[in-house]
Amino acid sequence: MLLTPRINPRVPSQCQTRSRPRISWHRKAALLASAVSVCLLAAAAPPAPLGIGDRLFPFLGNPGYDVASYDVSLTYPGTNDKPLKAVTTINAWTTADLDRINLDFARGSVQSVEVDGRPADFTSAGEDLVVTPDHPLREGSWTRITVRHTSDPVGAKGQDGGWVRTSDGLAMANQADAAHLVFPCNDHPSDKAMFTFHVTAPNGYTVVANGLPAGAVRAGRATTWTYRTQHPMASELAQVSIGRSAVLRREGPHGLSLRDVVPGSAAKAVEPWLAKTPEQIAWMESKVGRYPFETYGVLMAQASTGFELETQTLSLFEKDLFTEPAYPKWYIESIMVHELSHQWFGDSVSPRTWSDVWLNEGHATWYEQLYAEEHAHRPMEDRMKAAYRASDRWRAAGGPPALPKAPDPGQKISIFRPNIYDGAALVLYALRQEIGRPAFERLERAWVRTHRDSTATTADFVELASTVAGRDLSGFLQGWLYGEKTPPMPGHPDWKPQAAAKSAGHQGRRSARGAGAARPRGTR
């Protein structure tokens, strides 16, 4: 996921690859468009977990197929400590000859699997569900995989993420690698797909999910709610809210449909905050272009997560962010803009690999602070100067922005360190200093336009920046993105990094919320 740090108010794959042209209407990531052939296991070999070789999460994703769509049906039993009954149907193109299909799935029991309507054998290997169809699947074929399973909201030790248990139901927090703790999937952002959710819950509950509603059918004591996305989505951005909630509706720019999901008892108290969303969307559109999706809204969860999360079209927030009196008004608004800006940077344009996550968080931090500068007179330069002083320490602790260190053992989301928040925003500041504000603003618009509904890499960003600037920027950006030490800041020869010996130690998921901000808590 993508963390948006908060103030605390009280104190590798070895596989050979062969390329295949893109075969679906939406733009697919190169990692998934390149089919792995020689490292796919033959049916006679023992089942084993696979992956697409992501440097930070080597067993995430699976080679050999390209998902076009998911259809996820969930039945909520009326209590959030019991498994949900579920059926997940995956439609995909094969990109290699397959005797087996690996899916990411690690929290729930599997009752049966069908491939193309026929029963298939299945077993578990690591965090993979390994499916053996009754016939080999040939490269370039369309296939449908149906898994009947449970989805357990109570996680085992070391399995953070997935379902979030709220005071009145459930929500999802799947970033970075936890969608497969909810439903079987190809759990890597490089394989985006369309989603349909059918969620059955007892009458009296409200269900909201990514995308637009496609009906609610009441049958006896339960109602089945259906939602469909209009744009492809990474599995880590999936969201389903089940609770005794109120849905507040309003209109955004260009007639955009907005809906917020809040605890019924809190609707009146939080309405002044939610009413700010249309203006915030208009402000973002003035910076980078039209909002990229079919709807937007805020999901306020009565839960203690320690973060906010940019799930596509329905960002997840802790309710306490809006009701805790110690949080300054400007700060809450800037956090709202942070998650909103992710709809462009991270959701519409998704990272090709998790090492590219700085493109998500650096941009979200950038627009969060730019909004605070323009609306609360908190200068961007002050925050960037503070970040520059800390940058060498952050690089030593967490790696450079575009080459983050692997997550800490047992803490997979610990990749969300300061180096990919303020450290990455510092890269953008240096770039703006180097090429000038007009060129930088053209680059930002071109980035989200060029890669909309797709994935992109750090190399793509460097290439586009060079094109917009009219000169090769690879040498300039190399040190900022990959260097162990922070390069000199253009235009600020007086800025100096702080010595590593003065570091206060590793703080995990944090980002200084402006100059002089109190020590923040985690956000995505």
TrEMBL record:
GO-annotated biological processes: proteolysis
Q: What is its EC number?
A: 3.4.11.2
Residues forming the Peptidase M1 membrane alanine aminopeptidase domain are 278-480
Signal sequence: where? 1-44
Q: Any idea which UniProt keywords this protein has?
A: Hydrolase, Metal-binding, Metalloprotease, Protease, Signal, Zinc
Q: Name one GO molecular function term.
A: zinc ion binding
- Chain residue ranges for the region called Disordered: 486-524
Q: Which cofactor does it need?
A: Zn(2+)
Q: What is the main EC category here?
A: hydrolase
According to the UniProt entry, which residue ranges have a biased composition of type Low complexity?
Answer: 513-524
Aminopeptidase N-like N-terminal domain: from which residue to which, for each copy? 175-235
Tell me what reaction this enzyme catalyses.
Release of an N-terminal amino acid, Xaa-|-Yaa- from a peptide, amide or arylamide. Xaa is preferably Ala, but may be most amino acids including Pro (slow action). When a terminal hydrophobic residue is followed by a prolyl residue, the two may be released as an intact Xaa-Pro dipeptide
The record's similarity note reads: Belongs to the peptidase M1 family.
Protein name in the entry: Aminopeptidase N
Q: Which organism is it from?
A: Streptomyces fodineus
